[in-house]
Amino acid sequence: MSLQEHQILSKVLDDNCFYQLDKYKLSDSDFTAIPEVYSFIKGHVKQYGNVPDFRTVVGKFEQFQYQPDIADNLSYLAKSLKNNTAKRQMFELLQHKVEGNFSSMTGSQFANWLSEETKKIADEVNAADNSGTNLATNGSERLTEYLDSKERGTGKYIPTPYPSLTDWLGGGFELGDYTLLLAYTNKGKSWIATDIGVEAWRKGNGVLDYRPEISKTQMFNRFDTVHGHFNNVQLKLGKLNEQKEQEYFGFLNDFNEQQETPYILKTMDDMPNGLSIDLIEADLQQNPDINMVIIDGFNLMQHGGNSREALSGTSRKLRQLFGRYEVVGLVVHQTPTAAEKEGKIESSEDSRLPKTPDLTDYSETVATVQDAYTVLTFNQQDGIGCLKLAKSKTPNVDKQLELLCDFNKGVIREPELLDVI
User: Fold this and answer.
1) N or C terminus: fewer CB in 10 A for the chain?
2) Contacts for 31-36 with beta carbons within 8 Å, 24 or more apart?
3) Which CATH number fits domain 151-420: 3.40.50.360, 3.40.640.10, 3.90.1170.50, 3.40.50.300?
4) pTM of the full structure
5) How does pLDDT run across 160-197, given as a tens digit for each residue?
6) With contact defined as beta carbons under 8 Å apart, do 179 and 173 qualify?
């Protein structure tokens, strides 16, 4: 009994998404365990325009094991089923055709025949990954997407800590997006990333935060500074005054097993073999409640080499990973110091604000700039920060946001919002 067949047809009945199976090139030949169930649903959709009620199908076919609320997405289930078909076809080819043709064909003929047959099987299963979408026939898929958006509303977006930026982005960071944060060294980009992560967590979004260049204790203090506005230096030294110390103890009491939304931190201590794509994907599989992934230090990842091609490959894989798991990916990257020195002679559009890096101020970061849906550039001087929307899918590209920054106190706010702290 093929478990995937029962799961995928259960998903189709729950989500009324039969025509989406066309996207993955699924047909009668892929359903060998319960072909009659597939044929019945197909016929019902063709006649009535939607799937039958699951109780009708269960009552008609005893062999159908209906499974409600399948967590896996349709894409994963369909590709798994298609891979099973490929294995079955290869088995049949090897068991029933190879021996006879090997005996009757010349070496050249046999090699060409075997190559052609295996290529057909490979092409069919690969087509399920790259079939595109036929807009002429996928009305039900688009209806599902619309109803999902209607139900989730702003749940498809994660708001930023800065209302103006959230507005410029049309609601915040969209799930599945790849966001790049570029800044010069020692200007506070890691603090901005922490502020973004903490705000996402406050709004009920699980966060997976990778910090390969700092210690766990440093990040503990940074989190408590941003979230609780406790003095960072005093936290590091254990020198909060008596009143603040009591406030801090009470603050920490709220962080216990009753907290349902995860904020998972991984520092250098937790990654003895380094930060890799495989590690991130494994963590996402183990933590399904994650909606945001922060990677503070793209250069510190394992790229399989230091070439531009290796770095570009990592960037492409990150973009695919964020989309596949429908998480916001925030990648923090340092702009070369030389670009900062050259940029000092120029002024920002608003002369009060420090100039942020240009998108051309990169060396190996070209791939990340190209791959990211959203690029934020940041600079800060004497407590005045400038956050620029340098790349976006919205019409607000190049808008600049002034931020008053006192990182030691965890204050990173638009000037008019300081009174809320």
Assistant:
1) N
2) 31/5, 32/2, 32/5, 32/88, 33/1, 33/2, 33/5, 33/6, 34/2, 34/5, 34/6, 34/9, 34/61, 34/63, 34/64, 36/61
3) 3.40.50.300
4) 0.66
5) 999 999 999 999 999 999 999 999 988 999 999 999 99
6) yes
